[in-house]
Every structure is written in structure tokens, then in C-alpha cells.
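RECORD TYPE: inverse folding
INPUT: C-alpha cells
STRUCTURE:
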């Protein structure tokens, strides 16, 4: 466990990492399904609160594993067994998602016991891995112990909070402190401990985050299938049904295209300190993508007549996360390149205008399928802008950044 070479050529995701990611396919699906259900019933606050809590837990668990794996993937028997234990923890966490949403909806206390239990299982394995690094990698002994200490302290806090069964207000306040502890751990270990940080691989990390983004986009495909199935059962195949298929898949494809416009690995390799903002920013990216899929699922509830939401609110459940995703991508783009491209302001304005038109179309009584077409066009404002002009701007900005 002395660490892998951060300059290793052709470093790619391992089969074990891809197997680990499969648990998050199910996890994102479960979170999106519960979110869509509560939104469709009009329980907006409970839906957003539960979804935000669960998506942070899932995304943070994945980030912790992936960053460690990028630096210390020995792929021996102990490492493999620890990974299996963490997969078991993810499954336990997923089983507690319905109870957590229900407890928030009831408004009494946060029933996060199963989520915390899943985290305990995952973090026992994670702490064991960091202690192994502390023993076998003397050059990063204090760094590894710092990671282990922060993980342990945060987990003790979550266990205490789960046992206390405090009110939602108190829970939110304590959870905010624990979130800060969680996010501060890697920063302190990598930046404040004078050992040079762990040897994570920039291009490998960029690939891993891209792979989880694709997994999150799978929620868009699932939401499309759900919406189309509902439309077929309601009125059979029609032009509107075909439009739903095209718009749902087109939206997913457009978001994928937008995300991968900038290859982050090159900048992360040159400026390793940028990894914190870039990596933490993906908490919003993963959540907004999964929320987009949940919004498509809400459209299905509306088509089936099983939602208290009207067409306008239903369209907004898709349009708002798409807007959040696009704004986050632009923000991280500008942060990595340390420059704001004025052309982006026009693209952002165009994206906002298209999404507003989608909502207004629903207000004016247009079919939901028409609004979905407009939402689908929103990410393609960026795509068209990049393919015509933006790619030259990016090349110039990247060249200046890497000088």
C-alpha cells in the first residue's frame, strides 16, 4: 500500500471499480423513485429534503472510495474484500431510503438509522484501509491517520444523531456540522498535512467521475421509459408518445454531451489543488442529473392521472434540475480554466430562455410533450454553441491555462 504512480500512463477504471459502481445504479434509482413519488403527491418539502440527504450520502460514499482507489488500488485479497464490504454497506443504505423519506414527511424526526448502519459497514472497511496505508506507506503516515480520524469522528457523530431521534430542526443543525466535518477531512489530510497528499491519478479520477455521471444519466433513460409506458397505457401509441421517447432520450443525450465538453483530467493533473472544488461540485451534478430522471418519472404520474401536480409543476420538476446542472457545469468549467468566457453568458441566457418557454408552454395549455421538447432543447443550446464557436474558445483558454 505504498501508493500507485500518479503519472502512470493509460490508467483506467478497474473491473472491481465498475462492479462497485453497480450498487449505485440501484441506489440512484431508489432515491429517484422515492423523490418522484413524493413530488407527485405534492409533498415537495419532504421530497426535496429526503432526496438531498440521500444523494449526499450516496455521492459522498462513492467519492470516498473512488479517491482512495485512485491512490491505493493494490487489488489484493484484502482490498477486494474491503470493497465487497463497502458494497454491502451501500445495499443496507438503500434499504433505509423509504423510511427516511417517510420520517421527513411525517415531520417528527429523521429516521436515518438504516442509512447510518450502511455507513458504519462501509466505514469500518474504509478505516481499515487507511490504517493499512498508515502502516505500509511511511511517507504518508500522518495523512492516512488524518483521513481515518476524520472518517471515525464523523461516523460517531452520525451514530449519535441517529440514536438521539431529535426533532427535524435539531437534526438539520447537527447534520450541517457533520457535513462540514465530512467535507473538511480530505482537505485537511491533503492540504494541511505536510506530506504531499495521496498519489491519486488525475486522469483516472476524471474518468471515474465521468462514469458515475453516466450512471446517474441512466435515471433519465429509466424516467423516459416510465413516462412512455404510462402514455401507452393511457392512450396507446400516438404522436405524443413518440415525442416523449425522442425528448426523454434526447434530453439525456444532450446532458451527456454538455458534461463531457471539457476534459478535466488535463487540468487536474497540472493543478491538483483544483480537485477539491471540482470534486465537491459533482455532488450537485450527480444530484441534479438524478433529479432530472425523477422529474421524467413525475411526468409519467401526471399522464396516468396519479399526481396532484398539474402540468406546469410537472414540467418544472424536469426544467429546474436541468438548469441547475447546466449552471454547475459552467461554473466548474470557469473554475478549472480560471476565466469566464463572455460567450458562455449568451449560452446560459439561451438555456434559461428555452427552459422558461417550456414552462410557459405548459401555462398556456400546450401538451406536456411540447414542453418536454423545449426542455430537451435546453442543453443543445450549449452543444450547438460549442460545436460552432465554443470549441475554439475552449482551446485558447486551455492553452493559456496550461502555459
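DESIGNED SEQUENCE:
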Amino acid at each position: 500500500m505504498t501508493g500507485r504512480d500518479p503519472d502512470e500512463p493509460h490508467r483506467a477504471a478497474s473491473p472491481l471499480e465498475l462492479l462497485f459502481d453497480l450498487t449505485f445504479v440501484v441506489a440512484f434509482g431508489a432515491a429517484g423513485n422515492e423523490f418522484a413519488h413524493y413530488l407527485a403527491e405534492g409533498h415537495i418539502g419532504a421530497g426535496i429534503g429526503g432526496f438531498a440527504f440521500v444523494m449526499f450520502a450516496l455521492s459522498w460514499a462513492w467519492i470516498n472510495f473512488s479517491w482512495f482507489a485512485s491512490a491505493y488500488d493494490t487489488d489484493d485479497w484484502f482490498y477486494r474484500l474491503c470493497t465487497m464490504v463497502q458494497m454491502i454497506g451501500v445495499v443496507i443504505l438503500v434499504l433505509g431510503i423509504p423510511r427516511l423519506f417517510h420520517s421527513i414527511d411525517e415531520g417528527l424526526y429523521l429516521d436515518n438509522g438504516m442509512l447510518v448502519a450502511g455507513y458504519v459497514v462501509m466505514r469500518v472497511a474504509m478505516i481499515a484501509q487507511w490504517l493499512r496505508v498508515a502502516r505500509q506507506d511511511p511517507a504518508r503516515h500522518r495523512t492516512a491517520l488524518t483521513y481515518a480520524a476524520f472518517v471515525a469522528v464523523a461516523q460517531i457523530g452520525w451514530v449519535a444523531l441517529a440514536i438521539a431521534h431529535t426533532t427535524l430542526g435539531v437534526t438539520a443543525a447537527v447534520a450541517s456540522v457533520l457535513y462540514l466535518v465530512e467535507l473538511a477531512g480530505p482537505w485537511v489530510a491533503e492540504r494541511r498535512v505536510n506530506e504531499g497528499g495521496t498519489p491519486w491519478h488525475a486522469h483516472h479520477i476524471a474518468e471515474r467521475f465521468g462514469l458515475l455521471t453516466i450512471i446517474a444519466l441512466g435515471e433519465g433513460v429509466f424516467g423516459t421509459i416510465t413516462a412512455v409506458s404510462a402514455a401507452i397505457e393511457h392512450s396507446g401509441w400516438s404522436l405524443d408518445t413518440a415525442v416523449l421517447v425522442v425528448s426523454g432520450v434526447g434530453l439525456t443525450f444532450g446532458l451527456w454531451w454538455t458534461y463531457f465538453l471539457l476534459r478535466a483530467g488535463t487540468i487536474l493533473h497540472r493543478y491538483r489543488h483544483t480537485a477539491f472544488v471540482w470534486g465537491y461540485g459533482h455532488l450537485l451534478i450527480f444530484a441534479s442529473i438524478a433529479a432530472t430522471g425523477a422529474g421524467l418519472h413525475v411526468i409519467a404520474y401526471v399522464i396516468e392521472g396519479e399526481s396532484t401536480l398539474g402540468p406546469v409543476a410537472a414540467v418544472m420538476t424536469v426544467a429546474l434540475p436541468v438548469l441547475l446542472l447546466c449552471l454547475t457545469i459552467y461554473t466548474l468549467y470557469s473554475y478549472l480554466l480560471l476565466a469566464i468566457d463572455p460567450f458562455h453568458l449568451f449560452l446560459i441566457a439561451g438555456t434559461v430562455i428555452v427552459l422558461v418557454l417550456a414552462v410557459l408552454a405548459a401555462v398556456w395549455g400546450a401538451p406536456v410533450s411540447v414542453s418536454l421538447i423545449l426542455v430537451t432543447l435546453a442543453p443543445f443550446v450549449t452543444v450547438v454553441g460549442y460545436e460552432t464557436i465554443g470549441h475554439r474558445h475552449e482551446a485558447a483558454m486551455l492553452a493559456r491555462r496550461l502555459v
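NOTES: The longest helix spans residues 368-402.
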